[in-house]
C-alpha cells in the first residue's frame, strides 16, 4: 500500500494517508505501530525485539472509508456480530479523534476518543506501548453494550499453532451448540467459538515464528476464537487464513456498562 505523508505530529508520530484512510504511525526505539483513525484501528505493532509484526493484516486490504480493516484489532462495539447493523457495531467504521499522546523513553501512550455528533463522548481507547502492548477500552454510554477487541494475530502456519489455557467447553457458533473441545487446541478447519473467559490469558504457541503470543484478557467475559478457513471473507485472499488466528477479548454474554475492558499482549521468543 502506497502511503503519503499528511503531516508530522512530533518526532515519533506522523499522520499518513493510506488510500481513503488516515493512519497515525508511531516510530520509536521501543517499536513501530500503525493506527487508522477510522475505528481507532491498530493494525500493525512491531516491538523492537520482534522479527515479525504481532498482528496479521490482509495483503489485499483496500483501506476504504466505511469498510472495516481486515486485520489488526477492530473494535467491535456497541454490539457483536449480527446483533445489529452494521455487523460488529459502528465503532470500527467511525472516525475517532486522537485526544492525547505521551511519549516517554520506554513507554508511549496514545488515546483515541469516539464522540457523538453532539460531542458527547461515546468511548475511549488507550493504547500503551512498552515491550508489551496494552489496549484499554472504556464505554461512556449509559446503555449496556457489547464489545470485542477482535485481535488478528500473525502466525507462521495456522495448522502448526497451539492455543493453551482455554476451557474444555465452548459455544460453537457454527453448530450453535455448546461442545466439549480439547485444550490445548489445534486448528485444522473453519472455527468460530465463544469461550467463557475463565482463565486470565490465552497463549498462542507458534512454532514456525519461534514465539509465544501471550494474550491477557482484562475484565472480559468471553474469548472468541475465529478463523474462516476457505469461507469467502471480504478483503481476504483464499490463502489469507493460513497465517492468522483471531483471539478476541470480549464482553458478549455479560453486557458492558460504563467500565473498561482490555487486552495486554506480550511476545515471548522461544528460539533456542
Ligand atoms: O467479517 P466480519 O464482520 O469482520 O466478522 C468476522 C468474524 O468476527 C467474529 O470472529 C465472529 O465470531 C465471526 O462469526 C465473524 O465471521
UniProtKB/TrEMBL annotation:
Keywords: Isomerase. GO terms for biological process: carbohydrate metabolic process. SUPFAM superfamilies: Galactose mutarotase-like. GO terms for molecular function: carbohydrate binding; glucose-6-phosphate 1-epimerase activity. Its EC number is 5.1.3.15. It is an enzyme of class 5 (isomerase). It catalyses: alpha-D-glucose 6-phosphate = beta-D-glucose 6-phosphate. The active site is at residues 150, 248. The keyword Hydrolase does not apply. Pfam families: Aldose_epim. PANTHER family: APOSPORY-ASSOCIATED PROTEIN C-RELATED, GLUCOSE-6-PHOSPHATE 1-EPIMERASE. Belongs to the glucose-6-phosphate 1-epimerase family. This is Putative glucose-6-phosphate 1-epimerase. It comes from Lonepinella koalarum. The lineage of its organism: Bacteria, Pseudomonadati, Pseudomonadota, Gammaproteobacteria, Pasteurellales.
Amino acid at each position: 500500500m502506497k502511503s503519503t505523508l499528511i503531516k508530522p505530529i512530533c518526532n515519533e508520530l506522523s499522520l499518513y494517508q493510506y488510500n481513503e484512510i488516515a493512519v497515525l504511525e508511531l516510530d520509536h526505539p521501543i517499536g513501530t505501530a500503525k493506527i487508522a483513525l477510522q475505528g481507532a484501528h491498530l493494525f500493525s505493532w512491531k516491538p523492537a525485539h520482534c522479527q515479525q509484526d504481532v498482528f496479521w493484516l490482509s495483503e489485499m486490504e483496500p483501506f476504504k472509508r466505511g469498510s472495516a480493516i481486515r486485520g489488526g484489532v477492530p473494535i467491535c462495539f456497541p454490539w457483536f456480530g449480527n446483533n445489529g447493523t452494521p455487523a460488529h457495531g459502528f465503532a470500527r467504521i467511525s472516525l475517532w479523534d486522537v485526544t492525547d499522546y505521551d511519549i516517554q523513553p520506554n513507554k508511549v501512550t496514545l488515546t483515541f476518543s469516539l464522540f457523538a455528533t453532539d460531542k458527547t463522548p461515546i468511548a475511549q481507547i488507550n493504547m500503551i506501548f512498552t515491550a508489551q502492548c496494552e489496549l484499554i477500552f472504556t464505554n461512556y454510554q449509559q446503555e449496556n453494550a457489547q464489545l470485542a477487541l477482535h485481535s488478528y494475530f500473525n502466525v507462521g502456519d495456522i495448522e502448526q499453532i497451539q492455543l493453551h489455557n482455554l476451557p474444555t467447553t465452548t459455544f460453537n457458533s457454527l453448530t450453535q451448540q455448546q461442545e466439549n473441545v480439547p485444550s490445548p487446541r489445534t486448528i485444522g478447519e473453519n472455527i468460530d467459538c465463544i469461550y467463557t473467559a475463565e482463565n486470565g490469558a490465552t497463549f498462542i504457541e507458534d512454532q514456525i515464528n519461534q514465539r509465544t503470543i501471550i494474550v491477557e484478557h482484562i475484565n472480559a467475559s468471553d474469548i472468541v476464537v475465529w478463523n474462516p478457513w476457505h469461507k469467502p471473507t471480504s478483503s481476504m485472499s483464499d490463502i489469507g487464513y493460513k497465517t492468522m488466528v483471531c483471539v478476541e477479548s470480549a464482553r458478549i454474554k455479560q453486557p458492558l456498562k460504563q467500565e473498561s475492558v482490555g487486552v495486554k499482549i506480550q511476545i515471548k521468543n522461544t528460539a533456542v
